[in-house]
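Project outcomes to date are best conveyed with an example. Our students and postdoctoral researchers have been running inverse folding experiments weekly, and each run begins with a structure described purely in tokens. The record below, which covers 336 residues, was selected by the lab manager from last quarter's runs and is presented without edits.
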């Protein structure tokens, strides 16, 4: 009975029963703050509820919410980029050829590509996608399962792939491509499954470029310089959201996506737009001051501006302010 239960759980869990046990045990224990981080620059922080990852110019480190250092390992990359799911993280060398896979025990796998890496993304299932330059095409996209076995390849003959994204199950792939036409860039967002190289859906972005793709619940957040588009993963419906200025920040939270619109000549005049996991506008409000970091979770907006950290509700009403050091430029909201 126990053996059958273990097999069943291994099939339904996104990675494996053993790995989930390792992750659960690794989070246990107490620590304290402040905690030292290896490296001279913090590049990214991502919270996963009871723990969070910190990427620096030299290391990837995981902490639990009480400050216990779960692991810290050097990556050795010149241009490290991190992608995190609810089960694993990957760090890759953008412009290089190497990618490492981590869970809370540390590095568990690695990949070396034939050509330079452009972008990569990992899903909750452990599947991950990697876009690279190509000798035979303009770009190629490779999808790997949780064991780093290749399961799909998609090639772009004419356009450069600048972003890749997997849905939560790791069974659908979105890519954005760009190409120069008459001195201007245009872009396409293409949704694929692993049965065919033919697109399930293509969104054409004339005279604009998809700067990033974010998995936002039931759909894909497409970020251009001044517009936000939401594409439903299965229905392929598209919604648009705009505000005054250009998009300076886009971040994903538990309850939706946060956008900060402002202008290059005045980063202190901000319009914040909150978007639901269905692509619908929740609210829009103004925030004054230069924002150095911002997050949206549990229907609260957290942000650092100058020497102060503030919390607002989803309508922009300030709930709490607290002073912070001028050196504080990034934070991670812990807890579920």
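After processing, the design step wrote out the following sequence:
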């Amino acid at each position: 009975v126990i053996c059958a239960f273990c097999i069943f759980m291994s099939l339904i869990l996104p990675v494996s029963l053993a790995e989930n046990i390792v992750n659960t045990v690794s989070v246990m224990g107490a620590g304290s703050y402040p905690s030292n981080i290896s490296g001279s620059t913090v590049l990214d922080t991502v919270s996963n509820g009871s723990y969070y990852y910190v990427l620096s110019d030299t290391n990837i480190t995981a902490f639990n919410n009480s400050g216990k250092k779960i692991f810290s390992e050097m990556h050795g990359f010149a241009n490290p980029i991190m992608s995190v799911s609810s089960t694993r993280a990957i760090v890759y060398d953008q412009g290089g050829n190497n990618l490492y896979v981590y869970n809370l025990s540390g590095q568990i796998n690695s990949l070396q590509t034939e050509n330079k890496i452009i972008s990569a993304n990992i899903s909750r299932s452990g599947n991950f996608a990697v876009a690279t330059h190509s000798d035979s095409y303009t770009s190629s996209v490779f999808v790997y399962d949780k064991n780093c076995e290749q399961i799909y390849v998609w090639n772009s003959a004419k356009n450069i792939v600048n972003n890749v994204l997997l849905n939560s199950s790791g069974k659908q792939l979105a890519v954005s491509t760009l190409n120069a036409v008459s001195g201007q860039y245009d872009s396409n967002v293409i949704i694929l499954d692993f049965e065919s190289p033919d697109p399930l859906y293509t969104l054409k972005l004339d005279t604009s470029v998809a700067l990033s793709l974010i998995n936002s619940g039931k759909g894909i957040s497409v970020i251009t310089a001044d517009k936000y588009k939401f594409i439903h993963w299965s229905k392929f419906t598209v919604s648009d959201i705009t505000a005054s200025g250009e998009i300076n920040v886009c971040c994903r939270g538990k309850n939706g996506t946060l956008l900060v619109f402002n202008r290059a000549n005045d980063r202190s005049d901000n319009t914040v737009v909150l978007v639901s996991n269905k692509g619908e506008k929740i609210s829009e409000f103004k925030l004054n001051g230069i924002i150095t970091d911002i997050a949206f979770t549990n229907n609260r907006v957290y942000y650092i501006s100058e020497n102060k950290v503030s919390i607002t509700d989803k309508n922009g009403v300030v709930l709490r302010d607290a002073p912070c050091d001028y050196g504080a430029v990034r934070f991670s909201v812990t807890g579920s």
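Residues 208 and 254 are 28 Å apart (CA to CA). Confidence is low (pLDDT under 50) at residues 1-12. The training component of this project remains on track.
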